[in-house]
Amino acid sequence: MLLRDKMVVQGNRLFRKRGMYASVLGIPMVLFAFYQHLYSGNVHFFGWGWDAVCFAVSLIGLALRAYAIGCRARRTSGRNGQKGQVADTLNTTGLYSLTRNPLYLGNFLIALGIVMMFSLWWLVVIYALGFWLHYERIILAEEDFLLNKFGETYTKWAEVTPVFVPVFRNRRPPEIPFSWRTALKSEYQTAAMTIFSFIVLQLVSHGHPAYSFASVKVWVYLLALNLAFFMVVRLVCKRTKFLHVSGR
């Protein structure tokens, strides 16, 4: 089997099990990073300015995902199921005119902001390399699927649109207006988990003896608000059609 074909097979497997693999490989590294973060003597070393930068990086990633999904038609981009790739049409406008993989770029930035919070350079390097090795195969599998389905249309789009890092020279406005309801329905879990991660890191840092109980209490309240946001939106999604938009 050719190397590229082998990577495509691996990519299809990773696509179906991407959440499981990320958890198995990521959790031990995160636990070790927590240990280093707490006991290296550099707890909260860079202060609030660094925290704000890290949170901004993750927010940019969330915004990219929300905008890409809020402007998508049904069965084009989004949370494809465990059975494999789904695409009835090819997205080539909006964020997809800047990069072929805006959702994966969003994923990278969301997790990068969280990883940066540990203030450990080696963790950022390991994360970046691991992300590339993981998603390179997934992207190859998706390219193989889209090329077989859309042929020359996909080839022409791929020739002028970068794989990952956006370029703005060929920007085209999205064909479908942005829907905040579609974006919220799809991304509320990602948003809640991202905020949860930052709050937990703050609670761990402020649990250090150098911090007062009052500073910890603020983050506990924010944690409760985040949980309330998640439960309310989830209830609306499960019990109503308020966030459903026809054709999205």
Sequence-ordered SSE layout with sheet pairings:
Elements: H1 3-16, H2 18-39, H3 47-70, H4 102-116, H5 121-150, H6 152-160, H7 180-206, H8 213-239
Helix pairs in contact: 1-5, 3-4, 3-7, 4-5, 7-8
Short overview:
The protein is an all-alpha fold. It has helices at 3-16, 18-39, 47-70, 102-116, 121-150, 152-160, 180-206, 213-239.
Keywords:
8 helices; mainly alpha; 68% helix; 248 residues; single chain; globular
Describe the structure.
This protein is mostly helical and 248 residues long. The protein is 68% helix and 0% strand. The chain contains eight helices and no strands. The chain is globular, with a radius of gyration of 20 Å. The chain starts with a helix and ends in a 9-residue tail after the last helix. The relative contact order is 0.14. The model has no long low-confidence stretch (mean pLDDT 80).
